[in-house]
Amino acid sequence: MPAGHLSIDDFFTRLSSLFQSRRNSTHGTIILTQKRLSPQPPSTSSPTTTSQPFPDQAALSPLPILVRASNGKSKDRRKDKIKLSTVVQPDGLESFFTKYAEVMRGGTTALKKRDRSGRKKATKAKKKGKAGVSGEGETK
């Protein structure tokens, strides 16, 4: 495991507590990102060749994935910012995403449903208005 990254179990434990802390507050943001972890090229003094500018696109084996989570605090409140990351190897992706889905479902239970009642009323009013306008004055 590279330095600075949590083990997968620690990541899920801390992610669950991050969702729990969000659930106890009135508002907040949790940012989740995933990206392919490119292999580190050997350090050479020669510039990269133009024939293959992105060597990880032609990888011979699957690459690990870097998963990050943050509570979205801004620069003003940087001391309160929580940052989590872990590296998932290709052979453990399926079990990782199964557990990830469980944690996500549990973490999103505190989300509020969107209030769409105003939008529905506006749509109904538009439909009534169009039906009334198109039916008026058409005599043959």
Describe the structure.
The model has no long low-confidence stretch (mean pLDDT 77). The protein has helices at 8-23, 93-107, 117-135, and strands at 31-36, 65-70, 83-88. The chain is of the alpha+beta class. It starts with 7 loop residues before the first helix and ends in a 5-residue tail after the last helix. 36% of the residues lie in helices and 13% in strands. Helix 1 packs parallel to helix 2.
Strand arrangement, major sheet:
1-2-3
Per DSSP E runs of 2 or more residues, the count of β-strands stands at: 3
Radius of gyration, in Å, reads 25 Å
Strand-pairing-aware structural class = alpha+beta
How would you sum up this structure in a few lines?
The chain has helices spanning 8-23, 93-107, 117-135, and strands spanning 31-36, 65-70, 83-88.
List keywords for this structure.
about 140 residues, extended, about 35% helix, single chain, 3 strands, 3-stranded antiparallel beta sheet, alpha+beta
Topology overview:
Layout: H1 8-23, E1 31-36, E2 65-70, E3 83-88, H2 93-107, H3 117-135
Antiparallel strand pairs: 1-2, 2-3
Helix pairs in contact: 1-2
